[in-house]
Structures are given as C-alpha cells and as structure tokens.
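Here is this case:
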Amino acid sequence: MENQVSPPQSGGGREGAHFTAIIPARYASTRFPGKPLALLGEKTVIQHVYEQVSTVIDEVFVATDDDRIFREVERFGGRAVMTSANHRSGTDRIEEAVEKIASQADIVINVQGDEPFIQPSQIETLCRQFDDPTTQIATLGKPFSEMAAVENENSPKIVLDNNGFALYFSRSVIPFVRGVERGEWLEKYPFLKHIGLYAYRREVLREITQLPPSSLEQAESLEQLRWLQNGYRIRVGLTDVETIGIDTPDDLKKAEEFLKL
C-alpha cells in the first residue's frame, strides 16, 4: 500500500490562506505498540484526534506507515496517506504526505496522533500566529502552574523574546532565577511549557526537512532546536488549555476517566 492515498475531498482556506492538517501516526511504539488503534470510549484514539482537528480545518489527513491504521481511518470516513517507515521524525513524514497528496496548502499543521483531547481553540490560536507575515513556524506554550511541573525534564520549557518568538527550548529549567529560593521561582518568572503542536509555511516545511541534525537538537533531543539553530523563527501562541497525550497504556486509562467527565 506504499502509494496509497485516500480520495481527496473539498478543502478550504481561512483568512486568505489554505491550511492543511497532517496527523502522523505510527503503529510501532516502544511504550505502547498500536496506540493509534487503541479504543478510547467507543472510538479509536486516531479517530478522536481526527474529529477534533476536523472541527477547525477542512483538509485533514493521517500520515501513517501501517495499513491497519490506514484502513481504520478510511473506516470512520477520514483521509489517510501511506508514507515510508524509515522517517527520522514526524516532520519528515509530514513533508512526504504533503507531497503525496499534492496539497495546495500555504500552511501545514502538524498534530500529534496521540492527542485525542486537542481543543479547537488551540488549533485556532496556532493558525492566528500566521496573521503575522514574518511567522515561519508556529507552536504553542502554556504557563506552568506549579514548580514541580517546571522541573519535569519531559516538559520542555520555552523562553520568548518581546515579540512572542522563541529564543530557546530546553528540558532544563530556564531561565535561572538568581537570588531566589527555587520554590519561589514561579512567583518571580512566568515559566512557559511547550505544547507540541506545530504549523509551518509550506516552503519552510520543505526547507527544514533538508537540514541535518544540529548539535543543540542532539544535546536536548528536541527537534525544534535544529530549526532555531539554523536561523528559523518560531512564533509561540499562548493557550490556557492543558493537553492530555497518550504515551502508555496507563495514560489511556487516565484518558478514559477524563472522557467520562
């Protein structure tokens, strides 16, 4: 099924630009194999993600390397495209998908396939970052509410410039608040959590997938540092909505409880 693409449907633009959303979804996962096909309530995880994104974006595709996921997307009426199993990152998979579907998108949105509770407001905020013509790449940040979360190395932090563009992303606690007890840092500085939702101008997506891994990216294991290190600007929209990603079977159980609320 390497060359298979679901039949296209009508797509639309917003505010003069055409947005396409691509949801990369792999079957293989060290911590949770088959995660996109796991049931959450009466629907699979990938169906929840697809339907949430489709409330905002007209043209949505799942990019996968597994025919089981492809068939599931077609089963619930979605659109999917088969991509290589050899991609180094989800960004590379998205670039292949955009080429295969021959999308006319001005802006491509990257939505993780394990975020079934992504909110329309988050996608809207991401799209609005491109009202600024200087925006090349956009992502989201959310203020931290407790210091313990700031110190979690699995929650990357963002430092912004005065115009809302990212200066740096780190797994470490940045910035360092000098002369203040660590427990009081959150009262002195608005630490910002990175929400892993991205959008790229079409030509920028093509360019960044040609870049080799950078030293900062390899040090922190954060792909977005490759883009910053090569001079690309990442505009950060602010959201107050927390995301609930699914990385493990235990996360799925928590998501099931959240779904009942």
About this structure: The chain has a mean pLDDT of 91. The first helix runs from residue 45 to 54. The longest strand covers residues 192-201.
